[in-house]
Design goal:
The chain contains 13 helices and 13 strands. The protein is α/β, with parallel strands linked by helices and 396 residues long. The strands form two sheets. It has a seven-stranded parallel sheet with strand order 3-2-1-4-5-6-7, with helices on both faces.
Length: 396
Amino acid sequence: MRVLFHYTHKQTLGHTTRSISFVTALCRLKADVLVLQGGLVQPFVRFPSGCRVMDIPFPFDARTSFQAHAVPVSASRRAQFILKAAAEFCPDVFITEFFPFGRSSYLPELLPLLRYLRKKGTRIMASIGYPLIIDLDRFSDPKFAALQKAVFAFYDNFLIHTPQELETPYIQKTIPSEPLARSYAALMKDLKARIDYTGYIFPEKIITGDSLRPNSTAPSIVVSRGGGAVYPKLMTTAIEAQRLLGGVHTVIACGPATTAAEKALFTSCLDPQDNGRVVLSDLLADLDDHLRTARVSVSLCGYNTCVQLMRYGTPSVIVPYHNTLASNPTNDQMARSRLLAERFSGIILDYDTMTPQSLSDAIKEQMSKPRPAPAPRDWFNGAETAARLVLEGRAN
């Protein structure tokens, strides 16, 4: 089976890692996969053998557009490139990652392809990390709602990579108004017949970078911020906070999107007393191993990190990302932080008000408590389940 897979990123790791893990599972089942990668090239990423990768030209999304961006002037040229690649590849299945639940700025480059493939009878599917519909507040605009409904109609299946509706109630609780909550419920109900919940996609080890094993037998604290596009204060606060703990080894994964100026700032925060106790890394290839063995994880509340924390039962202090430019404050990190707090004893801190003292207090509290029980292992079969649904058809 020939599978065409479109994904993009904003110099983060979440969408990249989830996409590559899904593609890896497809390749294990002997699918012929062509990946259309729409973001800036991430040279540190390893794609699985058995798939081909084409970088869509004129990438316009980067860490600077993490919170907001407009449709690029290069959309028509990107659309032509995508359409030509698809026509030559002749896919049996076309999969978009996150779109159309999000990434609405990619509609101009994807709409010609969706129309072309629908006429060809190609099965069209979406790979959705979490049941969050971006731009929910815009559905009150009849023109926008009609356009989105037309786009949704192209799709045969929506694969949502969580256990059965696990995150849905948490997302509902973060919706700020009753009308928006009703709109969300109605949209999900309309799509229900085409939705399959696959379980979480556990991240493959896709990064080529540092492999750091502490030279100390002291308890290890792991601090991470995903790809490194946002929240630099978490890194500097963690450096100060670890001095208040005493006797711990701190591994700080700054993320591959960390700028040279940020790295210089983080390094300048280190004192001589931190030598041998704090390690900074942009590209941490063995982050999964550190999260598995850590006494406490300090992180944002992104998909991949939280999936690892739940699987390993790692005590966590979480600082969920909040897009201050969004008119609708609902997002997956705010919702998932409540899931971790309620089911896995996570401690939530606010980024703006967090201090070295409050962070160190939260870490001490987590170190003093019993380790939470890991989530059931069948929560994490998402990549394999999704791949089977692609190759064999729907389970329901």
